[in-house]
Every structure is written in structure tokens, then in C-alpha cells.
Amino acid sequence: MLPRINQIAIICFCCLYASTISAQSDNSWWKSIFRTDCDTTQIQSVNIHNGDSILKDTYDFEIDRDSSVLLKTLPALPVKDGYGSVVIHMDSALTELDEKSLSETHTLKGYRIQIHFGDLETARAVRAKCRNRLVGRRVYLESIAPNYSVVVGDFRNRWEAESALPRLKKLYPSALIIPTDIELPKL
């Protein structure tokens, strides 16, 4: 059994070795699919002038150009000022989905800091004063029948809310963290 396996291995090795030799010969089929000529070679005919007379000999020069020289010789594209327009063609079902996703408010489980809880008039006054003090933070007026709550921020986790709480406690001593649905942050 073992001599038979050795014979098969030798036959396979010879066949594979012969195929690699033929693949490297000059008349291989695969060499014709690749370009052999350099496309950056340019032949120019030059007439040599000697004063008023032109010499009878015309000389051919081969000039090898690399891509950096070719880029310098190409004309620059004109710069266009102004505005363009884009037309997007899509199925109406995609348009409806896009409009629906933009019109809906998406919520996320998170935390806000409640700074006031009481009647509507007081809650509105606290919200207005808080908007002036905390520029850049979102301030919400939420109804919890029959009272109203003023809450600040959209914190995605408890740690963010805990880090903002001491600053708000200085301004509003009754501030506390409440879990609620928050709006997605702007991208």
C-alpha cells in the first residue's frame, strides 16, 4: 500500500512541475492579457533649425515621462462658482418612510433632573428663569396632574445626571434625579 502512495505522489509532482515550467515559457497564453508596452513613452519628431535653414535630417527622440511630468502638462480644469442641484429619484414608499421617521419623536430611556414641582404659573416662571441661567441645556415643563414639573436635561445614563446634579442643587436645592424617557441627542 505504501509503495503505491509513493508512486502516486511522484506522478503528481512530475505533472505539477511540468505545468509550472510551461507557465513560465515565452509563449504562454496569460502573457497576452497584460500590456507589455509602456504607455508613457512618447515619440516626437524634431526638425533642427540652423539659422534660416532647416537641416535635412529629422531625428526621432523617445521621451520617457513619469506621471508627475504628465500631470504638470495637462490643462487645469476650470473652477466653477455657484450652486448645483441634485435630483434624487426614489420609490414613494421610501419617501413616506423618510417623512414618517422625521415627523416622529424618538425616545430613549434615560434621566432628567427635576428642579420644581408645583402649580402651572410657578412652574412657568421657574422654567423661564432656568432657561436664562442654563443656556445650552434643555428645560422641559411636564404635566403630572394636577401639578406641573420642571425638569432639566437629557442624560443617557445615571452617571451623567449625577455629575450635573451638584451644580443644579446650588441653584435649586430641591433638585433630584428622575428616570424618564428622553429625546435622542442631536447628531
List the helices and strands and how they pair.
Layout: H1 2-23, E1 41-50, E2 53-64, H2 67-73, H3 92-103, E3 107-118, H4 120-133, E4 139-144, E5 147-155, H5 158-171, E6 176-183
Antiparallel strand pairs: 1-2, 3-5, 3-6, 4-5
Account of the 3D structure:
- There is one protein chain.
- By secondary structure, this protein is of the alpha+beta class.
- It has a domain at 105-183: Sporulation related repeat (Alpha-Beta Plaits), CATH 3.30.70.1070.
- The protein is built from five helices and six strands.
- It has helices at residues 2-23, 67-73, 92-103, 120-133, 158-171, and strands at 41-50, 53-64, 107-118, 139-144, 147-155, 176-183.
- A hairpin with a 2-residue loop joins strand 1 and strand 2.
- The model is unreliable at 41-48 and 53-62 (pLDDT under 50).
CATH class type of the domain at 105-183:
Alpha Beta
Order of helices and strands: HEEHHEHEEHE
Report how far the terminal alpha carbons are from each other.
71 Å
**Counting H and I runs of at least 4 residues, what is the number of helices?**
5
In the CATH hierarchy, the architecture of the domain at 105-183 is: 2-Layer Sandwich
Cα gyration radius (Å): 40 Å
Largest sheet: 4 strands, antiparallel
Mean pLDDT: 76
CATH superfamily of the domain at 105-183: Sporulation related repeat
* Beta-strand content estimate: 25-35%
Q: Indicate the low-confidence ranges by residue numbers.
A: 41-48, 53-62
What general outline do the C-alpha atoms trace? Answer: elongated
CATH topology of the domain at 105-183: Alpha-Beta Plaits
Number of strands: 6
Structural class: alpha+beta
Helix content: 25-40%
| Strand line-up in the sheet with most strands | 4-5-3-6
